[in-house]
Write a structure and sequence with these properties.
Largest sheet of chain C: 5 strands, mixed
CATH topology of the largest domain in chain A: Uridine Diphospho-n-acetylenolpyruvylglucosamine Reductase, domain 3
Number of domains of chain C: 2
Strand order of the largest sheet of chain A: 4-5-10-6-7
Shape of chain A: globular
CATH topology of the largest domain in chain C: Ubiquitin-like (UB roll)
Chains: A alpha+beta (about 290), B alpha+beta (about 800), C alpha+beta (about 170)
Distance between the termini of chain A: 54 Å
Oligomer: heterotrimer
Order of helices and strands of chain C: EEHEEEHHHH
Strand content of chain A: 25-35%
Strand content of chain C: 15-25%
Largest interface: B-C, 58 and 60 residues
Distance between the termini of chain C: 35 Å
Order of helices and strands of chain A: EHEHEEEHHHHHHEEHEEEEEEEHHH
Number of domains of chain A: 3
Number of strands of chain C: 5
CATH architecture of the largest domain in chain C: Roll
Radius of gyration of chain A: 19 Å
Structural class of chain A: alpha+beta
């Protein structure tokens, strides 16, 4: 399984990467971690004429607080993000999600941006980005573009990026003064470290009386894109997260999802399990929030 | 060796580091892909995208025009120059060549081979080979293949039926009529295989001056050099296979005879060393290394006391597009067709059909594991029907220790065993009472929890008695093994085995055995793999045979050496042999230890001092032992009774499982295996293979399947979709050893290479079914995937019930 | 099409080579440098047999092109011992506990284990299993591998010798 021939260029800056992509006229591809791209190239399912290597661009590897956002450079290694104290403190949901991403070895190379640009419907990083309302920043020779997550993930393995774009960062809004924060991340996979069949994410903020003041929910692997479940989340706010509230929230989520069948699980399976997974994520988030109180 | 006479051994059964490990941990293994011969060229394959198609034309012009490409070989050219590969059945119209001839019969079948300076270039060129196909009707489902009118995979053969025979051993009809209870069910073992991490690879080089084909391969196959020579139309001694090539796991499947014929032909044609290392896609789809794909229909007659009286077992196996070893894997289980139970009569119908899928190869256990799964499913269902505890039911039916040797209706005699004790040991090791409490507490908390029991036989020793059984024209009854030992001038010992190893520690095995007999430190004994020209006959590590057969051959040769040493000493000490004592290689008079000859002195006499040798004794110090498998050498009776393998190891699995009610995920553990393979020559090696076999079995039970869609495409053809257990999926396993020595072997050893695999699928299925039982659900189809269990549980939620 | 000059360090030695862009790191190590201890089991990043240390971290060398390893420090199984041809405490523990059979996955397992023990001197069994969960083995069922790593951890912790491979 040897890749078809290609030209290779290591970009020293984002600007250079963009120039190289533009010059390739649609036949260029960025290689970041390569954990998804290289297998596709080995199987000759991907055959870019030019590979633009962005691993050498230091600017893309960063995690920094900018005002009310945490900014993750697209070239940040998943392993580094997982270990980062700032990320763990400010974006605990993303930290939880990262634990489920691949294996330790793949996280040593795989990047935040690589997962986002790949847009696998069940990818954990994509789900966290959708749930947290991330803004994705891309640059090309035409300048910078920013996308809300819901406008970024367009379909299975499809984003709003075009062949000239280089994803440079994810800007994730932080919940400030939200009270007691709790997160939950649940996943079903066949083996422990496999691709998720389904993934559910929940982030809740409880006030001192145990009332949910803010909620965000999402499900991955249950539609062509990761879904932020806004009405299901809204149903939780103002409640004490009783069983009936959770059930009602899940019912709203069930109505929104459109799962597909594949080799590993049918649409019916995903439809049935998604709700239970969301409920488990909510429960986990509540317990987490209460533990912190 | 009878149990009472079992001595305590000095080296056998004790901890010893397997010497093979030393090179592997240093990264110094010698696998076929490590070979770098000057001028070596690389092969890539062109594969059929259709499950069935006429090959109208192959145009290699553009491929050949690529710089660095040396040749493109078609099936027609190869078939003119070689003989078809052997099938083992009397089906002359089912012909198999390494490259498809005239017709492609499965998606992924190799249609042309490209040879180039690098593998990458060969792949580039393979994409440029233009093949014109005319798609034909095809059949994917084995029951459809069996039906009249299904499109035959081999039209010359006339139908898709490769083999069908119904055996009746004992008064089956009477026994069924005489018993009040019966039940029937279907069990499905879907296609999977042992899939080693190293793919198959072969390198061949033709030496025109010596007229000799040198072959290095990742091989585990009886009569490989012979079949290779035959297919290439070369004299047998024109092929030299280098058995010292390390094999990265095989567990049956590394039989790449088609790869080897292809590469051997190319080596002669092109006058250059040729290398074919399957990439993973070629391996999964076109390597013809799939395993049993079986539908069992079982009917069992039993009394209200739970005693099983009679059994009807119909096994339909989907061989894929060529016969391979698939049909014969229906035959080997005849040797343990009643499992470890005292069942008096059996009707067994074995049916093998072709479909337009990848061909099967031999897989660990050679069909015994699927059969054990069917038998143990039967036992659990009988227990459930009668409301008898599953363990108690087994206790009532297990052959008792005092009944050995025990002959089963199909003609095999089980040499020794104590199944009840092994079962008790397994239960104790598992902490069964505590497991029951754990299970019941889990159930009270609303979780699905179960305990699985698997009592399974591991026939061992190898013997191809299934060949004459399934093909009376094949009168092979020899199934031998050999060992050569020499003591050199300096007194060091070297033993030679005549076949390859793939992780079983044979070098350590032979050194331990020889050291035991000669009373010399095994770590000083070198064991080499002779090449096929220098080697004595061997039948490869198949059928869990090497501890028995290679161990026996090594012991036999060592005993001859020891006898020679004693004879030399007797002659030189002037004493009859009965008055001498051999100890640690020194021979002394019993009544006067100072009258002795040391090892060094004896060696010197043997090698240098002919005048001191007993008259008529051969000079030097070397011995050969070649021996036939014990109990072998007989053809089957007309009604199909035969001694299949000589020695019967036994395993009792106890495993706890929980199923997530929503997702269908199964978590396993604790897990205990009671294991009796007679005397263990090296416990770490035996245990290791048992853990590994159990892991293979967990894979088969829960994760692994070569899945085909309705268009005949293999949809699980990479490691992204064919899922194998990692360290997370295999729980810690505790083994409780027991030893009922075999009366047939030198040290009482039985084989154990297939241990774990033969019982784990049955045990895991038993656990999952026990967990489902309170919901009145059952599943008898492997793998019990997340999707399958999820669907089953969904039906329970919506109030539907599964028929049992 | 394109060939690239690269310089990197492999097992402590500086290496200079020209590589085709599409040559993977595993193929470079095996075929160009003749370090055949690293194995290619699947070539699509699942089995882990190709694991090496890159700048101290375990990665799948089949998922990197050699040209991407320019400037990197690579350690392969051949570099885990105290000197060429010798084996270290970790490798010796694999021999003691028989944490292998056919040896094909073993180099990758050793790399994963080495990376673990550098992070965590005395890992729990669960941590050991997690560390090797990206390395598939079809021979051992993992138990004796876990025992080997546990033994190596105990011995390294108790030893006065640093135990680090000669390649750093």
């Amino acid at each position: 399984m040897k890749a078809a021939e290609f030209d290779y260029a290591a970009a020293a800056s984002v600007e250079e990467a963009c120039r190289l992509l533009a010059g390739a006229q649609g036949d260029g591809k960025i290689i970041a971690g390569g954990q998804t791209l290289v297998p596709l190239m080995a199987m000759r399912l991907a055959r870019p004429a030019l590979l633009v290597d962005i691993n050498g661009i230091a600017d893309l590897r960063r995690i920094a607080r900018e005002g009310e956002h945490l900014v993750l450079g697209a070239g940040t290694r998943q392993a580094d993000a997982l270990a980062d104290p700032l990320l763990r403190r400010e974006l605990p949901l993303m930290a939880k999600a990262l634990r489920f991403v691949g294996h330790g070895q793949t996280r040593n190379r795989g990047t935040i941006g690589g997962s986002l640009a790949n847009a696998d419907p069940s990818a954990e990083i994509c789900l966290a980005a959708a749930v947290l309302g991330a803004e994705l920043v891309a640059r090309s020779t035409d300048g910078e573009r920013r996308f809300a997550a819901r406008d970024f993930f367009l379909g299975a393995m499809t984003t709003a990026l075009d062949h000239k774009d280089c994803l440079v960062a994810a800007r994730i809004p932080l919940w400030r003064d939200a009270g007691r924060l709790g997160t939950g991340f649940q996943e079903v996979s066949i083996r422990r470290s496999d691709f998720a069949l389904l993934a559910a994410a929940a982030q809740l903020a409880l006030d001192a009386n145990g009332i949910c003041r803010r909620a965000a929910l999402g499900i991955g692997g249950a539609a062509a894109t990761p879904l932020a479940l806004e009405s299901a989340a809204a149903r939780l706010t103002g409640t004490r997260l009783e069983a009936s509230d959770i059930a009602a929230s899940v019912a709203l989520a069930d109505a929104e999802i459109e799962p597909i069948s594949d080799l590993h699980a049918s649409a019916e399976y995903r439809q049935r399990v998604a709700g239970a997974l969301i409920a488990r994520a909510i429960s986990e988030a509540r317990a987490d929030a209460e533990g912190r109180g | 060796m009878p149990a009472e006479a079992l001595p305590s051994f000095r080296y056998i059964g004790r901890k010893r580091r397997p010497r093979e490990d030393r090179r592997f941990v240093a990264g110094a293994g010698r696998y076929v892909a490590d070979l770098d011969l000057p001028g070596m060229l690389h092969v890539a394959l062109v594969a059929s995208p259709y499950p069935a198609a006429r090959i109208e034309a192959i145009d290699a012009r553009h491929a050949l025009a690529l710089p660095g490409v040396h040749a493109v070989l078609t099936g027609d050219e190869l078939a003119r120059a070689t003989d078809p590969l052997l099938t083992g059945l009397d089906i002359p119209e089912v012909r198999r060549f390494p490259l498809a001839v005239g017709r492609a019969r499965y998606v992924g079948e190799w249609v042309a081979a490209v040879v180039a300076e690098t593998r990458a270039l060969a792949e580039d060129a393979a994409e440029l080979v233009e093949v014109e196909y005319r798609p034909l009707p095809f059949v994917i489902d084995p029951e459809a293949a069996l039906a009249a009118g299904s499109p035959p995979v081999h039209p010359e053969h006339g139908s898709n039926l490769l083999y069908r025979r119904k055996f009746t051993w004992g008064p089956v009809e009477q026994d069924f009529a005489a018993t009040g209870q019966r039940l029937a069910f279907r069990a499905r073992w879907h296609r999977n295989a042992t899939v080693p991490i190293e793919t198959f690879g072969v390198v061949a080089r033709w030496d025109p001056a010596a007229q000799l084909l040198d072959v290095w391969a990742s091989i585990q196959m009886p009569k490989y050099p012979d079949q290779l020579a035959r297919a290439l139309r070369l004299p047998g001694n024109a092929v030299r296979v280098h058995f010292d090539t390390d094999v990265g796991g095989s567990y049956g499947v590394k039989r790449g005879i088609k790869h080897s014929v292809l590469v051997g032909y190319l080596a002669r044609k092109l006058g250059a060393p040729i290398r074919l290392i399957e990439d993973r896609l070629e391996n999964m789809r076109g390597g013809d290394a799939h395993g049993p794909d079986r539908i069992f229909d079982v009917e069992v007659a039993f009394g209200t006391d739970g005693i099983i009286r009679s059994l009807r077992l119909r096994a339909l196996d989907d061989a894929g597009a060529y016969a391979g070893r698939a049909p014969l894997q229906l035959g080997k289980p005849v040797g343990a067709i009643v499992g470890p139970y005292r069942i008096g009569s059996v009707e067994y119908e074995a049916i093998s059909v072709t479909t337009n899928k990848t061909a099967q190869e031999a897989v660990r256990g050679f069909g015994q594991s699927p059969t054990n799964f069917a038998l143990e499913t039967m036992m659990d269902r009988v227990a459930r029907r009668l409301g008898i505890d599953r363990i108690e039911l087994r206790r009532r039916n297990l052959i008792r220790a005092e009944e050995f040797p025990y002959t089963i209706p199909s003609g095999s005699t089980y040499d020794s065993g104590d199944y009840h004790t092994v079962l008790e040991k397994a239960l104790a090791a598992a902490g069964y009472e505590a497991l029951l409490a754990k299970r019941d507490e889990a159930r009270r908390a609303g979780r699905l929890a179960g305990i699985g029991i698997g009592c399974c036989l591991e026939p061992s020793g190898g013997n191809s008695a299934f060949e004459p059984l399934f093909n009376p024209k094949n009168e092979t009854t020899t199934w031998m093994e050999s060992c050569t030992i020499k003591v050199d001038l300096s007194g060091t010992i070297t033993a030679a085995m005549g076949t390859s190893s793939s992780g079983q520690g044979h070098e350590t095995l032979v050194a331990t055995v020889v050291g035991e007999v000669l009373e010399r430190d095994p770590d000083t004994i070198r064991v080499i793999h002779a090449d096929s020209l220098g080697a004595l006959p061997s039948n490869s590590p198949v059928g869990s045979r090497m501890a028995i057969m290679l161990g026996g051959a090594a012991a036999g040769a060592a005993k001859k050496l020891k006898a020679a040493l004693v004879a030399i000493a007797a002659h030189n000490l002037g004493a009859p042999e009965a008055e001498l004592l051999y100890r640690d290689g020194t021979v002394a008079r019993r009544d006067d230890q100072s009258a002795a000859l040391s090892w060094a002195q004896l060696v010197e006499i043997a090698h240098r001092k002919f005048h001191k040798l007993p008259p008529g004794m051969t000079p030097g110090l070397q011995a050969i032992h070649v021996w036939e498998v014990p109990t072998g050498g007989a053809l089957p009776t007309p009604d199909g009774r035969v001694q299949m393998y000589p020695c019967y190891a036994f395993e009792a699995h106890v495993v706890y499982a929980e199923i997530d009610r929503i997702t269908g995920q199964v978590t396993l553990g604790p897990y205990a295996i009671g294991h009796d393979c007679g005397t263990m020559i090296n416990p770490d090696i035996v245990h290791g293979m048992t853990y590994g076999g159990a892991a293979h079995g967990i894979g088969a039970a829960l994760y692994e399947r070569f899945r085909y869609d309705a268009q005949g495409q293999l949809v699980s053809g990479s490691f992204m979709d064919y899922l194998m257990p990692s360290a997370h999926e295999v729980p810690d396993i505790v083994i409780a050893d027991h030893c009922t020595p075999s009366p047939l072997t030198e040290f009482g050893q039985k084989g154990s290479g297939e241990a774990g695999y033969l019982g784990a699928p049955a045990a895991v299925a038993s656990a999952v079914n026990d967990a489902l039982a309170p919901l009145e659900l059952a599943i008898a189809e492997l793998p019990m995937s997340i999707a399958a269990l999820g669907e089953l549980l969904a039906k329970a939620d919506t109030g539907k019930r599964q028929n049992r | 099409m394109s060939e690239h000059a690269i310089r990197l360090t492999v097992n402590g030695r500086a290496v200079e080579a020209r590589v085709p862009a599409r040559m993977t790191l595993v193929d470079f190590l095996r075929d160009t440098l003749r370090l055949t201890g690293t194995h290619a089991g699947c070539e699509h990043g699942v089995c882990g047999a190709c694991s090496v240390l890159l700048d101290g971290r375990p990665v799948r060398s089949c998922l990197l092109f050699a040209v991407q390893a320019a400037g990197a420090e690579i350690v392969t199984v051949e570099g885990l011992g105290p000197e060429p041809g010798a084996i270290g405490v970790l490798q010796d523990a694999f021999c003691e506990a028989h944490g292998l059979q056919c040896g094909f996955c073993t180099p990758g397992m050793l790399i994963a284990a080495e990376a673990l023990l550098r992070e965590r001197a005395l890992p729990s069994d669960e941590e050991i299993r997690e560390a090797i969960s990206g390395n598939l083995c079809r021979c051992t069922g993992y138990k004796q591998i876990v025992e080997a790593i546990r033994l190596a951890a105990e011995r390294r912790a108790a030893s006065n010798i640093a135990g680090a491979p000669h390649a750093g």
